[in-house]
């Protein structure tokens, strides 16, 4: 550090302070806030003044505008890049500005367009980082939500829906703070990993100084030829009992919030679940199936032959034993009586530095009209779930995902109208 | 596509229109700014030479504590003007090379010279004995650098790229403690790099204001954020705490503040259009 009284080493620390005073922006941090983002966005060439329409000519495109946000009841894509962000500002105006500016950029991304048209000035970095050039929209969906901590940070607790609370501690949780919580989330799903990553990277970059990634997780899904439920890394079908994404009536029961500023929106629960592949792989097929309560290859529940066959969780065999073991994952989940829309992805992120085991598992995502639905299921699994032996929950977050956006509006408008 | 006269341009970008017509815009006159920066760099190099001489004298006199105290402050002059100092390919590694850099180039430890070798002598071996020739060579190299810098032609690119490069230096080596692995005086370099970038911004300020006041406001705010964070680690004697005293939360906060500064700083090139 420069000694204050040492002329020789003092560059201009004092003169800069004076300059700040002269230009009237001294310590008025809050006042600088809102204009700051606009400053960067403008300099980077983002045109955030006009609404952008969903392209009618782009191939493999999911629509942005609609009753609900995309990426919830959109057919599941092959890749996710999920990011939990912290905001660096403290006023609701900053938040509103951020969502107004993100909205047209999100549409452009979902159209498979550059974030900003190329300029001819090669002396500055390009406004779009460019790695999605030559790739189509890849059914990119972007789902944005707000976490409970955001309402405290912006002192708008009175608008926080009662349902939006950090999830309670569940038996055997081993949550690490580096994978837990967040003020905002961006869920980017696409049929191309680079398109999904590009979306998050560029939205975060466009909001430089306003948001910061707290944690993130890439994930993948692979679909059997001819369609069908994808397999997780334990080689079991994941998402069999989901409500049909076309059954609006059922979705209204399970997924969509029907009151308040979040009407038409939903709650997203994210859990980073490490799956202990090494121990799973040395478990007999019989025990693996008993862990789930389903046959691995057909996906049928115990005692049935087809994946979607309904089953009676209380049914017993002639010996009086449960047909579906009462410690199985499916038995306990069904018994809870609660339903959720699962939209999970697998991940494989190298090895655990302390054990050398695969750092792999599930970025579990579920949507529900009340996080309590998830809590009910998870509590039912509790300490009984035979699956506990093979998984460790390492991360957790909950977000309220805004309803859909109409053209001319912007993400989260209903929240700001409620202010 | 009005204004796009040829197919190459049309291919380059099918959406942008107005921008295309500006390709032939004249170079902006930055002569005042360029000479102001040259002046700054020369002053820094004057001081660098003086302080290096002082450091070398203390070192050769066997004054270990004195040399240690002079080490980091002397280096700050180099770090502030690094965009210029490092434009002389051979000299930069000779003065500022780390052992890891030398080995990466397939060279042996015997080819290692400069400040970091003396840093190793002072902090690890706790001696100056046997390093007198290295100290002499450092002073000779500093003199050569000083002479060469007089001839440097400052270009707009050097300034604008240099400002971002200074921050990149911070992001990739200072914030990780990999620059000063023996003395752990990384925060001095950190501060100097930031000051070097800030100087460039100050010199370009009026040109930037004419183009985009919002960007200037943002940069003021972001420089202040970095400065304020660094000030939290200042010591009473006007120095900085050892890098080893920083927690992961500290380095993370510093790194984030630098990144948030770097993004708008990289937009200074708008004045060239």
Provide a quick synopsis of the model.
The complex is a heterodimer of chains A (419) and B (273). Chain A is built from eleven helices and nine strands. By secondary structure, chain A is of the alpha+beta class.
Overview of the structural elements:
The complex is a heterodimer of chains A (419) and B (273). Chain A has eleven helices and nine strands. Chain A is an alpha+beta fold and 419 residues long. In chain A, strands 1, 2, 3, 4, 5, 6, 7, 8 and 9 form a nine-stranded antiparallel β-sheet that branches. In chain A, a hairpin with a 6-residue loop joins strand 7 and strand 8. In chain A, helix 2 runs parallel beside helix 3 (92-110) and helix 9 (329-335) crosses helix 10. The longest helix of chain A is centred in the N-terminal third of the chain and has 19 residues, at 92-110. Chain B has two domains: 33-153, M75 peptidase, HXXE motif (A middle domain of Talin 1, Up-down Bundle); 155-273, M75 peptidase, HXXE motif (A middle domain of Talin 1, Up-down Bundle), CATH 1.20.1420. Chain B contains 13 helices and no strands. Chain B is globular. The two termini of chain B are 20 Å apart. Chains A and B meet through helix 1 and helix 2 of A and helix 4, helix 10, helix 11, helix 12 and helix 13 of B.
First and last CA, distance of chain B: 20 Å
Choose one word for the global shape of chain A. Answer: globular
Tell how many strands the DSSP assignment of chain A holds.
Answer: 9
Number of domains of chain B: 2
Poorly predicted runs of chain B are 1-25
> Over all CA atoms, what is the radius of gyration of chain B?
21 Å
- The first-level CATH class of the largest domain in chain B is given as Mainly Alpha
CATH homologous superfamily name of the largest domain in chain B?
M75 peptidase, HXXE motif
The second-level CATH architecture of the largest domain in chain B is Up-down Bundle
Uncertain parts of chain A: 1-39
Mean pLDDT over all positions of chain B: 89
pLDDT averaged over residues of chain A: 89
